[in-house]
Amino acid sequence: MPLLQKKPWKVWWNQSHRALLALVIIGVLVPTQAHSMDSVRLALQWVPQAQFAGYIVAKEKGFYAAEGIDLTLLPGGPDVLASEQLATGNAEFATLFLTTGLQRRTTLPVVNIGQFVQQSALLLIAKTSSGIRAFSDLDGKRVGLWNNEFQIQARALFHQMGLDVTVIPQSSSLDLFLRDGVQAASGMWYNEYHTLLSYGLDTEDLQPLFFSEIGLNFPEDGIYCLEETATHHPELCRKLVKATIRGWQYAFAHTDETLDIILRHMQAAKVPANRPHQRWMLKRMEDIIIADTTTPLGVLREEDFKRVCQVLLETGFLKNAPTFTEFYKGAAR
Q1: Predicted confidence band at 35 (pLDDT cuts at 50, 70, 90)?
Q2: Closest Cα partner for 182 from 217, 229, 130?
Q3: How many structural domains compose the chain?
């Protein structure tokens, strides 16, 4: 009896079926190659606190990882300058005040890739008992200034107003102010001002002098990197800013969860943690980041840039100013 001949289409089906099955098995047994992550470091200007909630939350919630970024946050402090972390290569990115970024650019080619704090929270704080009511009353007085890049705004003001001020180096402590070693101390609205209130002083005991109220409303925290990084890795910069925007949005929408995250990071860094103070700080950060609802998160406004450059040029803190397009490399302009 002759052998049955397999029909050609059955031969094709059997071969194809076996090949398909082999591919499925290979796919199950051999995992697909994971997408590579960009490992970078972001230097913060100060120790972990709600000032940096957007960055900390974005890392904690995996927003940077979702953009393919393995981010390490480097804390700052009284003796750790974020701009120096860029200069020495210890960090690829850093948070800086706009004034710091502009002045630092004279010796280091830094650029802004994302501006977050749109309104200045910097102030000088005096006691009402001192009789100081305005910046002009500081003439002939002792004023505490942080001995780092945060004093540019104050020194520009003293020069602009022709004030004869004795500058006393200020540490992270407010003890010198409390003991009347200085008549005015440096502070941030979201931090030192509320710290003094938590010490038992009343609002009536303090005279805050806001730079934002005398024409020096300078944008503060933004993300900076070397020009080379922005030129050769524009997509990385874009993704870093995008994830940070998402971090701030989440932080403002989920206050209690954000405070839990911040306090956990502060405790891990052995930084004194106080939930009511961090709540105040987070709310003030929202005030100064969402200061203008018409400006998208992460955008540096050209008019702000030009205004700060003009003041720094007039007061001698800059000899030459970069153009806006040279300095700002953000996605939206």
Answers
A1: low
A2: 130
A3: 2
Q: Residue 294 has what pLDDT?
A: 85
> What is the average per-residue pLDDT within 267-277?
95
pLDDT at position 310 is 95
Residue 5 in this model has a pLDDT that exceeds 90:
no
DSSP annotation of 183 = S
Q: What are the structure tokens assigned to 283, written together? A: 């709310």
Give which of 176, 184, 130 is closest to 157, Cα–Cα: 184
Say yes or no: 190 and 242 in one domain. no
- In this structure, which amino acid lies at residue 131? G
Distance from C-alpha of 272 to C-alpha of 262, rounded to nearest angstrom: 12
The strand pair at 206-210 and 122-127 is best described as antiparallel
Determine if the pTM surpasses 0.85: yes
Three-state secondary structure call for residue 163: coil
List the domain range (segments joined by +) for residue 80.
38-118+219-327
Could you give the CA distance from residue 205 to residue 128 in angstroms, rounded to a whole number? 5
Residues 6+ apart with CB under 8 A from 137: 126, 131
How many other CB atoms are there within 10 angstroms of residue 130's CB atom?
A: 15
